Amino acid sequence: MRLGDFVTDYRTGEAVLRTPVQRIWFVAFLAFLVALPLVGGHYITFLGCLVGIHIIATAGLNITTGFTGLISIGHAVLLGVGAYTVAWMANNGVPFWLAIPAGALLAGAVGIVIGIPSLRIKGLYLAVATLAAQFILSYIFREWESVTGGVRGLSVPPAQIGGFVFDTDLKVYYLIMPIAVFALWAARNLFRTRVGRAFVAIRDRDLSAEVIGIDIVRYKLMSFALGACYAGLAGGLWAYFFRAITPESFPLQLGIFYLAAIIVGGLGSTLGSILGAIFMTLVPEVLRALVNLAAIISPAAVVYVSPLREIVFGALIIGFLILEPHGLAEIWRRIRRFFFLWPFRS
Amino acid sequence: MSFLDFYEYSLIGLLLGGLYALIGLGFVLVYKATRVLNFAMGEFMMMGAYFYFSATVLMGLPWWAGVMLALMASAVLALGVERLVLRPLVGQPTISIVMATIGLASILHGAAVMIWGADQWRVEPIVPRAPFFLGDAMLPGQLVWGFGLASIIILGFVLYFRFARGGVAMRATATDPHTAMSLGIDAPRNTAVTWVLAALISTVAGIMVGAMTNVSPELGVVGLAVIVVVILGGLDSIPGTIIAGLIIGWIESMSVAVFGSGVREIVPFAVILIIMMVRPFGLFGTPEIERL
């Protein structure tokens, strides 16, 4: 139960972590993140890295789609822009602390280019523009062989700072995790600023937003570019994590994966980005485990992993849209609310 | 490029455009009725082609029975989808429904791979294969017949919407569901019928395209490319879709002639980015006027 929790000014009301208990939990959570790979073993570390990358990309899509209401189907290909930029730079001797921001910025710039045609109308058109971008950029990844290595793709040397080489999953985890925490911290705080509130206003009613003085075109572009930046950042880390990228690494299905992640997690919620990305990363792992179990009985079952994943992703999107449109974040909030009042009201 | 090449590629492009217009009609029907761009239309096409494949190749039925069976199966599928996915989302923001159709596309694609595998299958075309000669140009028979069939179906729909009682009721529902309901039109039923009609159209298109390119899970991508056609046509305009279909078909055919077949899948998408900058509501679409 929560006691003595009075909000007497706006500053406290808007704080991300309001009560001492929340702060303690938050510090405990950070400590958990640091300790996770040390106690979890190799597989958990691998999943931790993957979740970190997915969380960054999901947070980006959530800024564009969840907070600003612009559907993007081609989010995956923006990861690709970040990943290819980093891969190309890393192969040309640029250190990772320069390559990763460069990848994010370039993805943001590409995002602006994609966003421009669709700004005159609503989200539906942006969805089509991002679909177009998905096909066109995939084509470029495949055909621009001198830079992208064509269908064979590129291999990426490990990130390196001084003499320290990020060559194992464990080391890469400590590269990804702080960046993911920072990216989420930035995303969470964005929505306490003027810019973030403008995004939300555009989502809720873009005409009203324009009437109260928000430059819709500028803020829509900004939102899309920001989402693309997050994707580029995630893509850059992806390159250093998998150390090899091909045009097939960033298919339309990956974009749908992220769309599913924000819907499952909760549109317009930073917590939702985290929960959604974790959930969606674990779903294929669980499916694979189940199929492997089924493969004991009939070995042919293994081919069903990828179509089954598509079916489950689609079903999750539709199921959450119908049954729990605010996603896992809402379920989490409900559980918390229950304990605020417990045991006086159940 | 010689004049003969130009002439031949132009004709092939226009014939292809007729098919695009047919698929586009499916999009327009659903958009007019529900204001939703159905991203699963390509997958409906793919399912239709697979139903036809199952009936003719796996069950060994003659082609006409295969077509009937495929149409029936698609109708059932569309009814189920409307009931389970779209009706619960009535009244939700458009963005939710659009995302639901994306989820639907993912489910159908996965289901097709699961049931029929990821391989390509050959099916017998429902129209003669023998080529046509128009002057010096040789045109693939399937394209010519497909174009003819598409024209008849489109014409039939235009007449139905213009004159038939059911068609007028559907137009009324599309314009304003509440008024239509107060006039005694069963709006939810009309929406369901619209989905079924769209599925039937995409089945016919799917069978024809499937016979030309082989039936595979990739057929859905053709449907995605047709989104470009409906946007150029203006989303809610049937004449616009026909003209846009011909234009996109021609552009695609010409660019394949000039740049080689590798560009086929990206040309429509490059075109759309330009269209959205120049004329965002398409050739014949209604510019949206919004009020607070």
How would you portray this structure in words?
The complex is a heterodimer of chains A (346) and B (292). Chain A is mainly alpha-helical and 346 residues long. In chain A, the strands form two sheets. Chain A has a two-stranded antiparallel ribbon with strand order 1-4. A two-stranded antiparallel ribbon of chain A has the order 2-3. Helix content of chain A is 74%, strand content 3%. In chain A, helix 8 (194-204) crosses helix 10 and helix 12 (270-297) crosses helix 14. Chain A has helices at residues 10-14, 20-67, 75-91, 96-115, 123-143, 145-148, 169-190, 194-204, 206-211, 216-242, 252-265, 270-297, 305-323, 327-341; strands at residues 154-155, 159-161, 164-166, 244-245. The longest helix of chain A is centred in the N-terminal third of the chain and has 48 residues, at 20-67. In chain A, strand 2 and strand 3 form a beta hairpin. Chain A is globular. Chain A has a single domain, classed as ABC transporter involved in vitamin B12 uptake, BtuC (Orthogonal Bundle), CATH 1.10.3470. In chain A, 48% of the residues are buried. Chain B is an all-alpha fold. Chain B contains eleven helices and two strands. Chain B has a two-stranded antiparallel ribbon with strand order 1-2. In chain B, helix 2 (41-58) runs parallel beside helix 4 (94-116), helix 2 crosses helix 8 and helix 2 (41-58) crosses helix 9 (219-233). The longest helix of chain B has 32 residues, at 3-34. Chain B is globular and about 60 Å long. Chain B starts with a helix and ends in a 14-residue tail after the last helix. Classes of the chains: A mainly alpha (346), B mainly alpha (292). The interface between A and B is large, with 50 and 46 residues.
